[in-house]
Structure formats: C-alpha cells, structure tokens
Amino acid sequence: MTFQFNFTIEDHVENELTPLEDGALTLDSSKESSVSESQKGKQRDKKRSTEQFDLPQDHSWEHNSVGNAAPSQDTDNSLDTASSSSNLEPHEKQPCLRVAKEHAIPKDLKKVLENKVIETLPGLQHMNISVVKTILLKENFPGENIVSKSFSSHSDLITGVYEGGLKIWECTFDFLAYFTKAKVKLAGKKVLDLGCGSGLLGIIAFKRGAKEIHFQDYNSMVIDEVTLPNVVANSSLEDEENSGNEPDVKRCRKSKVAQELCKCRFFSGEWSEFCELILSSEKLFEKYDLILTSETIYNPDYYSTLHQTLHSLLDKNGRVLLASKAHYFGVGGGIHLFQKFVEERDVFETRTLEIIDEGLKRFLIEMTFKYRS
Ligand SMILES: C[S@@+](CC[C@H](N)C(=O)[O-])C[C@H]1O[C@@H](n2cnc3c(N)ncnc32)[C@H](O)[C@@H]1O
Question: Where on the tree of life does the source sit, at the highest rank (predicted)?
Fold first, then answer.
C-alpha cells in the first residue's frame, strides 16, 4: 500500500546549506574557483519546497533482530522522501561541494561494533539504524549533525546537507533480490558502491569475492556509523573470534580478517570531489569494472556530476548497475529523466534489466560505454 502526503519544509532547514559544525565544508574555499559566484548565489536562493512521501512496500527480505532491540523502523516503514526544488532549470544547479576524504579502517575492529545492534537479512548483517540514530542524538555527536537535522525537518533528504544514507532504501532490496537470481559476476572485480549508505551492495560484492570494493557516501557520519560497521559485521570477525583458543591460530586468523578488509576503502564527500580525490590518490588509478548505485538519481541537479563521475571512473569495458524509482515526487528526478539525460550525452547506452511494478514502479538498468575504443 502506498501513502502520500504533502508538507512544507521549515525555513531554517533550507537555510542550512552552509558549512557544518565539524568544519567539513559544503563549499570548500580552496575549491571555490570551480563554483561560480552565481551558482553559489543560486544555492543560497533555494525556494521553500513541498515534499511528498511514500511508504516503501513490503519486501521479501525479512528482518530478524539479533540483538534485543525492536526491528529497525528505517528499513520497513520509514518514509521515502523527495527533497527540495528551486527556481533554477534542472541540470543548471550545482550541488554543494562537500570535500571528499578517505576514512581509515580502525585498528580495533571490535570497537566499530560497540553500542550497535545487529539485524540480519538473508546472508547479510546490518546495523539497526534506529539504534544508531538514537545514540548519535543522545551523545550529541560532534561533527555532522545530520540526525537531528533530519528529525527536525522530518526528512530523509536535505539537499547539500544530508543525502539519505542513514536508511536502507527500497531499491537496495530490489538489487539484493536481483543478485540472488541473476548471475552477476562479482569475483575478481573492482567494484564501487556509489552513494552507498548502508553499503549492502558493496558488501555483497565483498562476500562474493570482489578483488577490491570502494564505498562512497556524501556524509562522513554515514560511513563511520553505518557503512564501516556493516562491512565489519559481515567480515568473518565474529566466526573467527568464537573459534580456536590457540593464540597463534587466533592471531593468524585475525590477520586474515584484516587482509580481507584491506580490499575495502571508504570515502565520503560530494561526487566531483570524490572523483578528484580517487583519481589523484593513485598514480595509475585502475578504473572500476562495476559501479553499483541505488536511489541516487532523485535530484536532477546532480545528474551532470553523476554522469561525469561514472564517465571518469568506469573502465571502458565496465558496467554500471543502477536502481531507481520511476519518479521522485517533489525533487523531480527519476529513471526516465535520467535516461533521457544519458541519451543526450551520447556516452553510455542503457538497457533495462528489470522493472518492479508493485507500489511505486522501480527500475534496474545497466549502463555501458557506447564507444569503447
Ligand atoms: C537516497 S540515498 C540511497 C542510499 C543507498 N544507496 C540505498 O539504496 O539505501 C542516496 C545516496 O546517494 C549519495 N549522494 C546523493 N547525492 C550525492 C552527491 N551529490 N554527492 C555524493 N553523494 C551523493 C548519498 O550519500 C546517499 O547515500
């Protein structure tokens, strides 16, 4: 069943496209030359917007709480939100340039899972997001204040501030279902989970023997509090700790976990900044064989950057698997608009792999380079 209702964002939320408390800038002064004054003016000029929500459908991926907490509200019943619009033409607007950074994997992996409640999906574990949010609110977590901003705006998306990574969006479940039935080859691949949020797509790649997996999210807090813990929970850390008392054996096994996790790298920041960081971080950057991206095309303002990112980072023989709703009410993005955008650029060709026609229609598409030479 799908419910929809409208409400208006409060003024203070829309005025929060400014540097955040932790000094992680939404507009990096060192990069200002790449954003024209008029664009910055336009960003500040966001109009009051109307949002429309839908409740995700039930999905076949059952959630079983492993800890004592109630099952997460975020995956089953939370509200999908389409965020703000403005008075500019689509594709003219630029997202805020939140600086990209790489997140180191903590040495003490057990600490990553401290105060977390783990839930299970078939073959996967993930953090209960309600618990994560409650703790972040309680502890008045320094840095990105996205949880309280998201609460006070009743919104899972605040353009340029919080881009929705603190919940598992519906298309991720479509992706997971697709992975179980389609023979998507992941072993030996270099994979990027772009706009990863929970990171479940990258985790599947990790579990299925991908050579290297990179996770990117807009918000640094999402990477630290959700993505990284999810990856750690899905590594063999727990099994290894429960087996074998021999210290040598244990040490050896632990190093195996560390080795496994070395295949993963974690990044936060806006897409063009991420691109710049990753391309400059390695002399000979090896492009991705597979880019997985779920529910990242809701905002047409980001299409240009997203397209450029895919263009720069995908191997010439690689492919993008992208899942999206048909339309995101309120923001205006959706699969048809995005496909039209891609067609006009004439760089990629797209192919529809699956249409999920229950509730809000959803699509899974493949993108490959049109001209490979
Ligand atoms: C709606 S969430 C989807 C999260 C996750 N893929 C899922 O399906 O559950 C959109 C994701 O795209 C990322 N994102 C959106 N716009 C972005 C931008 N302009 N730059 C960087 N990341 C962005 C956010 O980090 C966010 O996690």
Answer: Eukaryota
Total number of residues shown for the chain: 373
Domains of the chain: 6-369 (3.40.50.150)
pLDDT tens-digit profile of 73-132? 333 333 333 333 333 334 444 556 789 999 999 988 889 999 899 999 999 999 999 999
For residue 102, the tally of other CB atoms under 10 A from its CB is 15
Residue 164 in contact with ligand 1 by CB distance below 6 A: yes
Residue located nearest, by CA, to atom 22 of ligand 1 = 218
Closest ligand 1 atom number to CA of residue 175:
8
302 lines ligand 1 (CB under 6 A): yes
Substitution site in 156, 218, 306 for ligand 1 pocket (most atoms within 8 Å of beta carbon): 218
Q: Are strands 348-356 and 190-194 parallel, antiparallel or unpaired?
A: unpaired
Q: What is the ipTM of this complex?
A: 0.99
Q: Residue 82: CB partners within 8 Å, gap ≥ 6?
A: 51, 52, 53, 157, 298, 328, 329, 330, 331, 332
Ligand 1 center–CA 297 separation, angstroms:
8
